[in-house]
Structures are given as C-alpha cells and as structure tokens.
Amino acid sequence: MSDATLHLHPEVETSHHVHADEHDVHHHKQTFITKYIFSTDHKTIAKQFLITGMAWAVIGGLFSVLFRLQLGFPDQSFPFLEDVFGHWAKGGKISPEFYYALITMHGTILVFFVLTAGLSGTFANFLIPLQIGARDMASPFLNMLSYWFFFLSSIIMFSSLFISTGPASGGWTSYPPLSALAQASEGSKLGMDLWLVSMAFFIVSSLLGGLNYVSTILNMRTKGMSMTRMPLTMWGIFFTAILGILSFPVLLSGAVLLLFDRNLGTSFFLSDIYIAGQALPNEGGSAILFQHLFWFLGHPEVYIIILPTMGIVSEILAIYSRKPIFGYLAMVGSLFTICILSLLVWAHHMFVTGLNPFLGSVFTLLTLLIAVPSAIKVFNWLTTIWRGSIRFTPAMLFSIGFVSIFISGGLTGIFLGNSTIDIHLHDTMFNIAHFHLVMGVAAFFGMFAGIYHWFPKMFGRYMNNTIGYIHFWITLIGAYLIFWPMHYQGFAGMPRRYFDKSSWVSFNQFADLDKMITVVTIIVFATQLMFLFNFFYSIYKGRKSTVQNPWNATTLEWTTPIRPGHGNWDGEIPEVHRWPYDYSKDGRDFIPQTEPIGANESVEH
Amino acid sequence: MVSDLDLNRTNETSYKESKKDRMHPHKFTMWIAIASIIMMFAGLTSAFIVKSNKENWVTVDIPKIFWVSTAVLFLSSLVMHFAVRSFKQREMSKYQLFLALSLLLGIAFLVLQWKGFNLLWNDEHVTFKGGGAGQFLYVIFGLHLVHVLGGVVALLVIFLKRFFGRIKNYNVVPVEVMATYWYFIDFLWIYLLIFFIVIN
After folding, report:
1. How many angstroms separate the Cα of A73 from the Cα of each of A67, A93, A518?
2. Are residues A53 and A176 in the same domain?
3. What is the pTM of this model?
4. Cβ–Cβ pairs < 8 A, chains A and B
5. What is the pLDDT of residues A79-117, one digit of tens each?
6. pLDDT tens for residues A143-181?
7. What is the ipTM of this complex?
8. Do residues A9 and A136 both lie within one domain?
9. Do residue A90 and residue A194 come from a single domain?
10. Are A28 and B3 inside 8 Å of each other by CB?
C-alpha cells in the first residue's frame, strides 16, 4: 500500500511548494507566519523546540566554559572577560556572584530548557504522529501553545541574564531561605523572581506538551498499531510524559509558595532567621518542606531527561545492528518500573538535610532498586548489538557511546544512593561526575544520535558524516576526560559549588587536574559548535535524501514522502501488521511494519 | 485555522476508522489535565498536612460565606448538566439559557470567594503574615479560584461562539469537555473545603 503511494510522487522533491500542491490533506494556502511561526504542524513545532533548545545549549555550555576557567585557573585573569561582562568580571577575574549565577543558570538551562524542552519537545513532537501513524497530535493547537509558553518562559529567563543584580544564583534547586530572601544575595533579588515566573510558564508548557503526548499515543494510533507494536521511542516518550504530568505540578505548587514567601510576606519556608544582624519576623516555616516539593519533581526530572533517550537509543541500536531489539517487553517493563520508582526516591537528595535515618534506609532501598531495571536495559542493549551487522554511522556511534556513558555514570549512583556513603560524598565533585555522566552526557548522546538519525526525515537532507565522526570521538573522549577525574576529587572530599579551592591544602593537589579539565571543556565546547555548523549547513547544503527509507528501517515515519507536508501521508494512513523490529528475519534484511504477515513467516508479533 | 479544521477532520476519521468506542482524544486530554491539576493540589495539601503537625501551627475559622459559594458552584454544575443534556437533545435555546445561567453562577462563585477572602483579611485579621492554615487557605483557595476563572473564560468563549458565531456547530465534544472541567473544579472545591475543615 505504501509502495503505491510512493510511486504516485516523485522520489526527489526539489521544492516544498510543489509538494504542498499535490498534497490532498493540506490544500489551503500557508503564509510564512502560519507555516514557520505559529504553525500547528507537529514537525515544525518539533524543529522550533530543537532550534530554541540549541540556542539555550550554546548559552548553557558557554557558562560552563566560563566557570571552568575560574575552577581551572583561579589565580589568572582573563582581560577579555571584563570587556564582555563588565563589572561581573572586574580585572578579568570572575566575581563570586557571577560564578554562582553561572553555575545556577548552567544547571537550570541544561536541565530544563535543553534536556527537557529541547529533547522531549523535539522528539515527542516529531516522532509521535509519524511513528504511530497519525496526521498530527490530538490537539495541534495546544501543541503550538506548548511551544509558545516555552518561548515566553525562555524570554523571561534570558532577560534575567541582563538585569543589574544578575540572574538567580542560589543553585538550580533554589533552596530557601537563600532563594527566598532578597537581602541574602544579589541573585536572590529580581533574578530569582524572574526565575520562578519563567519556571511557572515552563511548567505550563511542559504540561500542555505532556497532555498531548499521552493522549495522542493512547488514542490516535493507526489501525493495527497496538501498544506492543509501538517502537520503543514511543514507550520512552510515553512514560516521560506521564512522569512530567505527575511531578511538574508539584514543583509549580512549590514555586507558588516560594513566590508568596518572597513577595507577600508569608512564612511557608521561613523561620527564625537572622540576616545581617537583624531578626526577621517570619515564624513557623520549614525550609525542608521546599526540598520535598522540589525533589518530588527534581528526581523524576532526571528520568524525564533520560527516558526519551533510552527509547531513541533502543530504536537506533536495533536499526544499525540489523537485529531485532532484545527483550522488547522487558524494555517496556523496565521503563515502566523506572517510571514508578522514580516517583518514590526523591528523598535520597535529602539524606544529609536532617532526614529521619529510618526514612533514609527506605529511600536507599528504593533507590538501589532502580539498578535492576537499568541493568536489564543495559543487558538488552548489549545483547541487541551482539553479533549484529553493525553499521557505524554517527547515530549508531552516539548510541553505543550512550550505553558506555550510562554504565559509567549509573554505577556511581549505587554509591550515592546509599545513605551512609552519601554522608561523605554528598555535595562533592563525585556527585557532579555521577549526574553529568548518567543523565547529562548520556542524554546528550541520545539526543545527538536522534538528530543524526532523523535528520533526513526532518530536512530531506543528510548531515555530514565526517564531521559527525569527529564530533563523536572528541565528545566521547572529552566527556570521560572531564568527568572521570572528578570522581577522585570527590573521594578526596572536594566540594562542588566552591568558588576557589586553591587555599585548601587537601584540594591543591588537584590544581593541574582542574587545568586539564578546563582545557578539555573548551575543546569539547568548540566541537559542539562544529556540530551546530554541520546541522545548520546541512539543512541548506547537505546531501539530498533521494530515497524514502535511507536507513532501511521498519517504522512508519519512513513510509511518508521524503519531505512530508502537514498531515504526513498523502493518501490513507498505512495500516500496521507487525512489530517494528523485524530485522534480518527469514533471510530478509528488514520487513516494514506495513507489510502483512506472510504465510510462511517464522514468528509472529 | 482552516488547516486545523481540515486536520481535525482527518484526525477524526482515522480515529473513527480504528476505534469506534474509544473516548475522544480531546476528552481524554482533559482527563489527563485533571490528573495534573490534582497533583498540584495534592502537593499543596500534603505540604499543609506536613506543616500542620509542626509546633506553632495557627488554625483558621472558615467564614460561612464559603458555604454559600459551595452551594452556588454546586448549582452551577447541576445547571451545566442540564445544558449538556439539552445540547444532546438539540434543544438549542434551552442549551443557551442553561449555559448562560451556569456562567452567571460561576461568576457569582468568584465574587463570593473574593468576599470570603476580604472577610478573612479584614474581620478575622488573617493576613499573609505567618505560615499557618490561613496563609495556605489564601494560596490553595486562590489557585482554585484561578482555575474557576479559567473555566469562566472558556464558558464565555463557548457562549459567545454559540450566540454570535455564524457556523452552528452540533459537535457535542467541546461541550462535554467543558462540562467535565466544570464538574471537576466543583468536586475539587468540595474536597478542598472538607480538607480544610477536617485537617485544620
């Protein structure tokens, strides 16, 4: 059926307009505004999320380069910093206030704006309708609103970078009382209010998106696409959306209470405070209450970041190994288990904030249990590529890199999840190493894999492979060079967030190591700019995609025209007859999901 | 907007082709949104419970006017129920009447809530000072009020579209989605009021 559609249309499409005209779903006229700005097409919205996320990634990444300059070279001055940042870097040295603003915004930007909105926003929007066989999302309008709330939130957060007192600087967790009292620090003044308001809009955006993802996946699947015939990307995104829907509102309530405390004089989180020699009238509040509200989102949040990439990587590993995914149902089950457990472990971030030791042991148990589904996933990924005919494309390399980094970062989670060992490791560089590897770098690898893999579907062209390989190897080696040494620093007790550790004898020994980390950070950052160049250059000048299904994949998105219009399929939406992982089966390289089960097929799915 | 209409139609056909008895995606979306709103209030009310076990917890007397507003909101939901029924029976003038009535009762609820807040603030001197039940009341009831306000705006849009719109739409889905939300904020309110009375 899909073949028939294919022959009705030229395989190479030179202009989108030609294509739009022969499209029977969207024969209306589109202006630049309705097509690219206020578009309700899920594919355009996905690209909007992706490109906004990229802009944020550059800002957030640049911030890490700046504070690494301070950490690597605390006694040197860089005059160009003063030229750019003025009084924030007087004499070419980053000021303490600026340093805290940089680390806070680095965390906020990367966690929320890049790896939540940029990642889920891109792949959920782009892939859900294409992979389940729908014309668009359940509500294209809500979907558009979701992006524009994200944009509004972005503008507010971005503007906070330019105010005289600077952006929020109490850490991405924004614990009160530091974040609640304007007199506590420069960053707790207007910057903090903007942070909270921006986050409120961000949450609205993320909820509108999540609602759509869940109801689209559950309600809009094409004929034959049962839940267990969905590609694992869909399952990853599905559980991500559920987590977001259940946990983001709780952060919203925390943010509202904090806004009240800051601006209206309530004492939800404040009690018995002396600041600058003055006693505050606030009484009866509890700062730990905020931590509970924050981490009830904050912990699921790290899974909101990693689950979509787990789905993406599962899909890509199978495609480029030309083998079915190993243990499909185990993969779905482990995603489900991670989803449930992630809602029950938030207090492991609070082991040293005065938690009842008995509660601590319960949370330790639940936390360590996450190792089980994680190990199942790693085992299945490795078994999937085992003895496969691997095609080492950039997408595949990044997926294998994902598994490597996820193992390295995940193992240290077993240390940190243990409430007794955490007493020593809490808030040290060990922790930084752990979470950057397991959810930061790993999620980026998954995202890169996804971009390289679906780029032909997004833009009808390919990205440059050579730059892709350089990008992969420098990023992989760089990531290990940056974060591996931090484990040793953490074991030695070196704290995170400190501005200048050079006066401590016990941390002096790491001065050269810190220099090395900083230099590698700069190289890796430059490499990402190269990736961005590759991305944007390839949109316009990349090698044209001339085949509908360049990777010989089985899933539905590759049955659409090379440059699909709004509505995705020209004729009827294809029907699905099998699961998405029929690779190397019965002597055939792959069998698309749209092909009916043959009479003599060996196993039926 | 034309594109939306087109697309919705094709969406609907494909959805009808495959699942005849399934819930409409928009209705389903509303239910998930409701789950999300419940989580927010669950967060707030659990914060309330945690704090109410601490020392120096200050309770609050709920003004009687909140009982009146409860009755008004309940009545509004009842009227909404009749509105949906008339819509389904294609009795459009009745539907319009009930819709307007429901809208007015919704606005009345907002006014009564505002009066309640004023009573608390001026007569019982419960201000934003402190972190007890009174302050939680302002935040929790206030956020509920914002949700009712959103519902009132949506009702107004539906009503105006019905009254002035050139195209008469007989699709029951938007009305049912609206009604679901309206019943939900009613239930939510009753839960919150009982919660405050019991835990306080």
Report:
1. 10, 10, 8
2. yes
3. 0.91
4. 158
5. 999 999 999 999 999 999 999 999 999 999 999 999 999
6. 999 999 999 999 999 999 999 999 999 999 999 999 999
7. 0.87
8. no
9. yes
10. yes
